[in-house]
Amino acid sequence: MDIKIIIIAVNFIVGTVCIMYGVNLMSTGLEKANTHRMKWCLEALTHNLPLALITGTLLTALVQSSTAITVITVSLVNSGLLNLTQAVGIIYGANIGTTITAQLMSFKLPHAGYIIIGFGLLIAFISKKSSLKNIGWAVTGLGLMFTGLNILNSGVPYIKESQVAIELFKTYGQNPLIGLVLGMVTTMLVHSSSATVGLTIVLFNADLISFESALGLTFGDNIGTCITAQTASIGTNISARRTAWAHTLYNIIGATIAFILLVPFSHLVKEITFYLGQDKTRLVANAHTIFNILSALVFLPVTKYYVKFIQWVITEK
Length: 317
What we know:
The chain has one domain (3-159, 171-313). The protein has 17 helices and no strands. The protein has helices spanning 3-44, 49-63, 66-78, 84-97, 99-105, 112-126, 130-154, 156-161, 163-172, 176-190, 193-205, 211-224, 227-232, 238-260, 262-275, 283-299, 303-313. α10 runs parallel beside α12 (211-224) and α12 (211-224) runs antiparallel to α14. The N and C termini lie far apart (54 Å). The model has no long low-confidence stretch (mean pLDDT 84).
């Protein structure tokens, strides 16, 4: 076997694991430091749809985990503390808030990860308060995320030197439909949309996949991440199951519309990115953000009908 393929595989596995563990550590630390505040906010600050969207966005940006917010939302609906309309508003916001992770990943910080890890571990080990310890672990997770990206990037030269890898990307790396399926399946398997987005950013920035294919991966990532909420809704009441399906169908419908409008959407992302004075390395992260903002804006005016549709599709039986 080509030694370059082995190096590429090791880099891919180690880098992806670092990103997954880093994001999980970051979101868990922030979640533990703010659990009671999060539940209070989700209960108290979601009385109308726009407020629910804003609350979902801010809380997800704070804890860096749309999965955590969505699962908590499902549990609050299951206990009768939230209704389906409130939950849908939170889901809109959670999808927007989670794009902050991709924005962080798009910055070029090749060696900052190690410094951030050291700083986070220092806080975690010297702090006596549990809240500060959790923040320390969250900072450590952020450092691991950047380190994972750096490891993935270090494998790019080997990919470009490997004839097998080059042929593979030439054959499959330009097809957005393949990207959509791969993004969905990969995110379902690794239970980390951040890892999929991080890998997409690395591959696109290295010119190994087209922008359209990167968009397909991003749309698929949005669908694949729904698996956790579906799992969390098993054994819950009808309202909680409807919440999980509202999340899933929202992402499927949004991804389908965006995929149909792939060419104009890609032009829109490029126009906005270059207008802001940013380079192509920010395109994937910006596409992720713009896609989720547009999805929320499209669904907001018709939420009442969307909720009725979910109630009609997901019956008591």
